[in-house]
């Protein structure tokens, strides 16, 4: 995350220690507090909302870096494993704000700059609308590009009989 935030903004404490990545991925944060009660939202929820919003944009082929995509491919082969909406999404959530990092694989031929703008707009509006948190930044890393012929690359004859 490129913007500096105080420890109190990101963790809700005055400890002076920066938040650990593990703490931000499982912590529950206050999104709304009124005299009638308090609403808290888990960082995992913000991750999923951001991941789904990013995938809604045409031109996003997949999400995640090489390692997370490899684990995702293994997970898909396990019955009931499915795909995780949080793959390729990292979040840092404070009491009122969120910062989001996305790792994308884009389809060949798509304007990457226009795609990144559309993804950023959709993620910000979806997370803010659904959680009430102020999204202060969405950083996008394009890690790969999917070529049109990569989907059909299967050997025509088996190598082993």
UniProtKB/TrEMBL annotation:
Record's signal peptide: none
Biased composition (Polar residues): 1-28
Region (Disordered): 1-39
InterPro entries: Asp23
UniProt-listed Pfam families: Asp23 (PF03780)
PANTHER family: ALKALINE SHOCK PROTEIN 23, HYPOTHETICAL CYTOSOLIC PROTEIN-RELATED
Family: Belongs to the asp23 family.
Protein name stated in the entry: Conserved protein YloU, alkaline shock protein (Asp23) family
The organism of origin for this protein: Actinoalloteichus caeruleus DSM 43889
């Amino acid at each position: 995350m490129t913007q500096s935030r105080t420890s109190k903004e990101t963790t809700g404490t005055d400890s002076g220690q920066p938040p650990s990545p593990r703490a931000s991925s499982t912590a529950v944060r206050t999104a709304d507090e009124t005299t009638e009660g308090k609403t808290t939202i888990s960082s995992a929820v913000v991750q999923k909302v951001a991941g789904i919003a990013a995938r809604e944009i045409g031109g996003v082929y997949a999400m995640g870096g090489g390692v997370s995509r490899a684990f995702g491919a293994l997970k898909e082969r396990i019955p009931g494993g499915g795909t995780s909406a949080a793959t390729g999404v990292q979040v840092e959530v404070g009491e009122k704000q969120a910062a989001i990092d996305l790792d994308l694989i884009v389809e060949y031929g798509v304007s990457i700059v226009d795609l990144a703008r559309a993804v950023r707009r959709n993620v910000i509006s979806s997370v803010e609308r659904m959680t009430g948190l102020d999204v202060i930044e969405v950083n996008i890393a394009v890690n790969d590009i999917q070529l049109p012929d990569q989907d059909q690359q299967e050997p025509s004859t088996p190598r082993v009989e």
